[in-house]
Every structure is written in structure tokens, then in C-alpha cells.
Design goal:
By secondary structure, this protein is mainly α. The chain has a single domain (7-425), classed as Up-down Bundle (Growth Hormone, Chain: A). The chain is 77% helix and 2% strand. The protein starts with 6 loop residues before the first helix and ends in a 12-residue tail after the last helix.
């Protein structure tokens, strides 16, 4: 393993965020949700679609498909991270899921209303590729950066991701808004071309970290009867160890609850704006671009504030803002109010993700070698939270036929997370490791 804090290794690591964040912006946040909403609303059936012989509200279907994809990740990752830790080949899995996600995005080029099943399959596979690759990517953080540099390095990854995704988004933005400049007459082509470009961008730029990052460190002391059993035994082993770390255990509980809200808001925001406020595609894309640009500053700001006030206090402040965001979404009535809300979301979006990752990394024993297993546990925690959050959001919308009610319900998750963070501060000093600046 190379020396920690090597600038070339850190920059290469951050380029993975540059590569795969294009998926997060174009597919989960902007063009795909707008395109999906446009093609699945018809005069004959309204917002109802038929999927595998069953009728669904279009946005609820997308929520359910994503939730199912994340559930697959939850079941798959313990097995793969166990293999990765044993063989020391976690970079190979980063590569595998990059190809799965990238090819799935390219497959969305063929997505139209009459190929709904294919489109949803590619949508799910892209999510699986993105989430699974990110686990192995995150697990490099304690290996490439010392404790005092992990907030900065984590924020750098998110910053690279925001910049890279915005660059591709601008390129796609030109095709979507000015198709006549390129002689495009098929109204669906600009969006579908954007999905293809995301896949190529993702696979292409990921080759930079793949060329630089170390393969991993094998741990041949672990012997299991089978790979599948071993994977879940490894997860159980991590959970057993976490029981001996009261601070980390309490932090993960808080993270679990506030992640239900954070990740759900980020995944449904565009659909909410399109369906409830009737924003046009151009307005949606412009809004998300604003969010991404503000998020660059937000990630850096949270890193700076954490060095002054400590990670937990800053996280508490950010969760409070998220509670305000959900209440404001319920009350928002016009575009101007939504734009203001978008700026606030951007400021706290990158910050809470970056700070959550580095806080977890700091609470880990710094001499562990099986980082993939520990970050698998972190990711399983987050993905289970997303499954519950998305299912709750989609279920409340289906029940009440109003997405505003779904947004309001998310405040419950944030409030529980806030209380747990507050309790974390009150833990006895001898059990609470001070987070270094």
C-alpha cells in the first residue's frame, strides 16, 4: 500500500466521483426523471402505467424500482466485500460495477413508453452499479488519507463529482434545449442521447482511478465454509465489533434515520417539481444545475465548519435544515419558492454526504485492513434506509394521491436522527473519541 496522503493517489481516487456522479445527476436527478414523467403521462391513462401486468402511479413505480435495486445491493454487497477483503481485489469489483452501471445507462438509450420494462430494468441495474461501486470506492478513504485529512479528502471527492457531473450535464443540456441546432427532430432523442453519454463518461473517466489505485490488501487469515455464508458472517463480525464501539453504534443509528430522509429527498426532488409544481424540463435541469454548483461550496463549507465546531454539531445543524426543507416542500406553491428551496438543498446536500462518510471513517479503528467490510456495513445501513424512505414516500403518495404529504412524513426520520445525534454528544467523555480537526 502506498503512503497515505499522496496527492496523485487522492486525485485519482476523487476522479471516480467525477466519473460516476454523472449518473447521479443526469439519471437520478434531472433528465431521466423529467423524461420518465413526460413519456409516462398520457391522455388516456393520466399518470397510471402498466408494468408487468399491474397498474402503478408512474412516480410510485420509479420509487419502488429504485427501492428494489437498493435491496439487491443490500443482499449482494456483504458477499462481494467478503471476497474483496479475503482476496484483496476490491478494485476489480469497482471495475465490474462500473461496467454494469455504465452499460445499463447506455441501454436507457432504447427506453420509450412501449419498452417500459426494459427501461426500468436498465434503471435498476444502473442504480445497482452506482451504489455497489461506491462502497468499494468509499472503503479506500481510510487507506489513502490519515485521520486528520479524511474530512478534506472526502469533501474533495464530492467536489470532483459535482464539477464533473455539471460539465456533462451542460453538454446534455444543450442537446435537450436546442435540438434544432443539431437537426434533431425526434423529441425523445436528446434525452436518450444523454443517457448514452452518461454511460460512456462513467466508464471512460473511471479508467483514471483504476490505473492509479492499489488493488487492495488480501486478508488470508479469514476462512469461511462458503462465499455466501462468509459474506454474511463477515457482516455479523463487523456488527459484533461495532457493539464494542458505543460511539460508532450510536452514530450509525443516527445516520440510518437521517439518511432515510436525505437520500429520498435527493431521489424524488425532480419528480416532485415536475408533478406538483409543473416545472418544464428546462426549468428542472437549470434548477438541478444550481443545486450542484451550490453543493460544491456546501461540501467545502461543511468540511471547514467541522474543523471548528466538530463533526457531530455540524451534522445536527444540517439535519435541522433538512427538517426545514421538508416542511418548506410541503408548503411550496410556486417556482420562485422552489428555486430558493433548491439553493438551500444544494448547500446541505453535499455537506451531509461528505461529512457523514468522513465521520464514519474517523470512528473506525485506524489499523483495520478489512475496510471494505466496514464500509459495506455503512453502505448496507444507508441502502436499507433508502429502501424504507423510498417505499414510505411512494406508499404515502399512493395512499393520499399527494406528494406533499410524502415530503412532510420524511420529517419524522430527520427528527429521530437529530435526537440520536444529540444523545451522541451526551455520551461519557471516556467513550466519546474527540473528532480531530
Amino acid at each position: 500500500m502506498e503512503n497515505k496522503n499522496d496527492p496523485k493517489t487522492i486525485n485519482a481516487w476523487a476522479m471516480f466521483d467525477w466519473a460516476n456522479s454523472a449518473y447521479n445527476l443526469v439519471i437520478t436527478s434531472t433528465i431521466f426523471p423529467a423524461y420518465y414523467a413526460a413519456i409516462t403521462v398520457t391522455k388516456e391513462h393520466g399518470d397510471q402505467v402498466t408494468f408487468l401486468g399491474h397498474r402503478f402511479v408512474n412516480t410510485a413505480l420509479a420509487d419502488y424500482v429504485l427501492a428494489a435495486a437498493y435491496m439487491v445491493v443490500v443482499l449482494l454487497l456483504p458477499i462481494l466485500t467478503s471476497i474483496a477483503d479475503y482476496k484483496g481485489n476490491k478494485k476489480n469489483y469497482m471495475q465490474l460495477f462500473t461496467w454494469i452501471g455504465g452499460i445499463a445507462c447506455c441501454g436507457l438509450y432504447f427506453f420509450k413508453l412501449d419498452t417500459l420494462e426494459l427501461g426500468m430494468l436498465c434503471f435498476a441495474l444502473a442504480a445497482i452499479g452506482y451504489c455497489s461501486g461506491a462502497v468499494f470506492y468509499n472503503s479506500y478513504l481510510p487507506q489513502i488519507a490519515t485521520l486528520d485529512q479524511q474530512d478534506r479528502v472526502s469533501a474533495k471527492g464530492f467536489t470532483y463529482g459535482y464539477i464533473g457531473s455539471v460539465l456533462l450535464q451542460v453538454i446534455c443540456f444543450v442537446f435537450v434545449l436546442k435540438p434544432d441546432l443539431f437537426g434533431i427532430t425526434d423529441a425523445s432523442f436528446p434525452a436518450r442521447l444523454s443517457f448514452l453519454l452518461v454511460g460512456l463518461w462513467w466508464i471512460g473517466f473511471a479508467q483514471i482511478p483504476f490505473a492509479r489505485l492499489p488493488k487492495g490488501q488480501p486478508n488470508t487469515t479469514k476462512v469461511y465454509d462458503s462465499v455466501i455464508k462468509g459474506g454474511f458472517q463477515e457482516l455479523g463480525h463487523v456488527w459484533h465489533n461495532i457493539q464494542q464501539m458505543p460511539v460508532l453504534k450510536r452514530y450509525l443509528s443516527a445516520f440510518f434515520f437521517y439518511s432515510m430522509g436525505v437520500q429520498t429527498v435527493m431521489l424524488v426532488a425532480t419528480g416532485f417539481a415536475a408533478k406538483v409544481l409543473h416545472l418544464a424540463d428546462a426549468e428542472l435541469i437549470a434548477t438541478i444545475l444550481i443545486i450542484q454548483l451550490v453543493a460544491i461550496a456546501g461540501a467545502a463549507l461543511m468540511s471547514r465548519l467541522s474543523s471548528i465546531y466538530g463533526n457531530i454539531k455540524v451534522l445536527m445543524g444540517v439535519v435541522l435544515i433538512w427538517i426545514g426543507v421538508c416542511i418548506a416542500a410541503y408548503l411550496t406553491q410556486n417556482k420562485v419558492q422552489f428555486y430558493i428551496l433548491a439553493v438551500v438543498v444544494g448547500m446541505v446536500m453535499g455537506g451531509i454526504q461528505s461529512l457523514s462518510r468522513s465521520t464514519y471513517s474517523k470512528y473506525l479503528p485506524q489499523n483495520i485492513t478489512d475496510t471494505a467490510a466496514y464500509f459495506s456495513f455503512y453502505d448496507v445501513t444507508e441502502k436499507l434506509a433508502i429502501v424504507i424512505g423510498l417505499f414510505t414516500f411512494g406508499f404515502v403518495e399512493s395512499l393520499t394521491n399527494n406528494m406533499r404529504n410524502s415530503a412532510l412524513v420524511l420529517t419524522i426520520f430527520f427528527i429521530v436522527g437529530l435526537v440520536l445525534l444529540a444523545l451522541l454528544l451526551r455520551m461519557p467523555k471516556q467513550n466519546l473519541e474527540d473528532l480531530p480537526a
